[in-house]
Amino acid sequence: MLKTINQSIRTGISFSSKGIVARTHATRFYSVKLTSSKYPALKRSEVFKQLNSDDLRYFESILTKAEILRPSDSENLSLYNEDWMRKYKGQSKLVLKPKSVEKISLILKYCNQEKLAVVPQGGNTDLVGGSVPVFDEIILSLNNLNKIREFDPLTGIFKCDAGVILENANTFLNKHDYMFPLDLGAKGSCQIGGCVSTNAGGLRLLRYGSLHGSVLGLEVVLPNGEIVSSMHSLRKDNTGYDLKQLFIGAEGTIGVVTGASILTAPNPKAVNVSFLALEDFDKILKLYGKAKSELCENLSAFEFMDKESMTLTDIHLKGELAFPLGENEHPFYILIEVSGSNKSHNDAKLESFLEGAMEEDLIIDGTIAQDETELQNLWKWRETVPESCLSQGGVYKYDVSLPLKDLYSLVDATNARLISKGLMSENPNDKDPNKPAIGATGYGHIGDGNLHLNIAVNEYTKEIEEALEPFVYEFVQSKKGSISAEHGLGLQKKNYVKYSRSPIEIQMMKDLKHHYDPNGIMNPYKYI
Ligand code: FAD
Ligand code: 2HG
Ligand code: ZN
């Protein structure tokens, strides 16, 4: 049983944003349109060669049958050409799945000489169109490079191939009483190399920091085939430039990450989670301040979800899980996780914090997990939001950093914008099938100042995209935020980097790209 901490739900709460009325009938999915037809201004570069039979013969000479995937093979090529949101679709005719770093080196050396464009691909859970080709680029999948290399139980330093799936890395570490310092909803599919290449932030960044801190070393294959083996194990190493940082978050534009050395964290002995309802965003910020000062080192997650994101999640879960607080009737929800080494201390801290928060009128209702199953169920209401927002047909996702005081205002502004353009119903109860947008939702990582603005739609349309872009980016710039908090730039934000980076910063990125990849074969057409 979930322990309810306050059953006395207040009435008459006014809801600041437009409510979401999502479809409850079967999800409609459209066949994914080719990226090249959706964005006709994007042209295939003449610099790149078309794949020919000589190229195929070369790849067949260095790879086994199991490492090459072509249209005639039974495994579906569209799994590699289409992204997770079914928003982008490339036309690659070749997927290479090498089993060794040396083979990756030979592939890149050859592609560089022959000017064949390449898209590195991990678990293909990218949310900005970065992991799939735009035209006929060769897909270099890391799926077969998936061995754990070594682990030191004293220092917690873990070394693995780039293709190891995050969840598998964590399961391995848990057996040694350690944990991976990153966790996210796509953990069952995303790979360590993909997470490093996007500098994924995830659900516990506030406690464990970013991969820029926990990656101690990398092994990378440069576009010319050179292997840079820097799988260092040192926490302190100031020997000149910290070159690995260049590849963390580079999104496969200057090399292929083939291995990573990571500083992992001891697994906490005691973890607990509370799910709370709040009546306005201001109270979320007050609660966060209180959590920081009272829960201190025990605070391991502080996630927020708005009512709309919970509505969509409820529909998506189809009654599989009861809503933690009876009804989804409050404007905002917070999931707080505390973790430490002593259960009674951990629990006592959480309970006294929650009692104080109720006395100060910060929370309306809440519940604390009583066992591991309940804890996992509460997390499910947070981790399932990204796919729930997609489940109505499509979703436009924006991942932004904003000053905390302005964080939620973007959601309200986006709803107002869609209504003013006639793309969304003003009245949440009006299920007008002619309005392509269902509504904007907001959720994300309060501790990181990171809002996920998701606009659930019945289908992807040019009108919605034009209403949202550059509107969202201009809004973020006006508040001195970042247009790319943790998901990267990919193809989606290709034309908008200037909203968060100065001309000199963009030029320095281009210089680096040109230096390491003069033929531009690595993940072309994307942000750089
Ligand atoms: P891919 O999607 O395959 O690739 C991502 C990018 O990295 C592409 O540009 C690709 O070309 C490049 N790349 C991949 N592997 C390599 C490599 N070995 N070398 C060089 N380049 C490479 N992100 C967060 O930050 N926080 C979250 O909480 C979060 N939650 C998510 C939840 C869901 C349900 C989903 C679908 C995604 C989520 N993401 C989140 C997005 C996140 O970026 C990815 O899940 C993950 O980091 C990408 O890993 P991947 O292996 O799937 O990489
Ligand atoms: C999360 O925090 C992820 O759940 C995904 O970063 C966010 O899908 C999104 O917009
Ligand atoms: Zn996130």
Description of the structure:
The protein has 17 helices and 19 strands. It is of the alpha+beta class and 528 residues long. Strand 6 (148-152) and strand 7 (157-161) form a beta hairpin. The site of flavin-adenine dinucleotide has 38 residues, from strand 4, helix 6, strand 11 and helix 13. Flavin-adenine dinucleotide binds next to strand 4, helix 6, strand 11 and helix 13. Belongs to the FAD-binding oxidoreductase/transferase type 4 family. Residues 88-267 form the FAD-binding PCMH-type domain. Its EC number is 1.1.2.4, 1.1.99.40. This is D-lactate ferricytochrome C oxidoreductase.
- What is the CA-CA span between the terminal residues? 51 Å
From the 3D coordinates, which CATH architecture of one domain would you assign?
2-Layer Sandwich
- How many helices in DSSP terms? 17
- DSSP, total strands: 19
Largest sheet: 8 strands, antiparallel
Q: Strand-residue fraction?
A: 15-25%
* Helical/strand content category: alpha+beta
Summary keywords:
five-stranded antiparallel sheet, binds (2R)-2-hydroxypentanedioic acid, 19% strand, Alpha-Beta Plaits, binds flavin-adenine dinucleotide, alpha+beta, 528 residues, eight-stranded antiparallel sheet, binds zinc ion, Uridine Diphospho-n-acetylenolpyruvylglucosamine Reductase, domain 3
Secondary-structure map:
Layout: E1 3-4, H1 35-38, H2 53-62, E2 68-69, H3 78-81, E3 95-96, H4 101-114, E4 118-121, E5 138-141, E6 148-152, E7 157-161, H5 166-175, E8 178-179, H6 192-198, H7 205-208, H8 211-214, E9 215-221, E10 227-230, E11 256-263, E12 265-266, E13 270-278, H9 281-295, E14 299-306, H10 307-317, E15 332-340, H11 343-359, E16 365-368, H12 372-383, H13 385-390, E17 394-401, H14 409-420, E18 437-445, E19 450-457, H15 462-468, H16 471-478, H17 503-516
Parallel strand pairs: 3-5, 4-5
Antiparallel strand pairs: 1-16, 2-3, 6-7, 7-11, 8-12, 9-10, 9-11, 13-15, 13-16, 14-15, 14-18, 17-19, 18-19
Helix pairs in contact: 9-11
The structure holds flavin-adenine dinucleotide (FAD), (2R)-2-hydroxypentanedioic acid (2HG) and zinc ion.
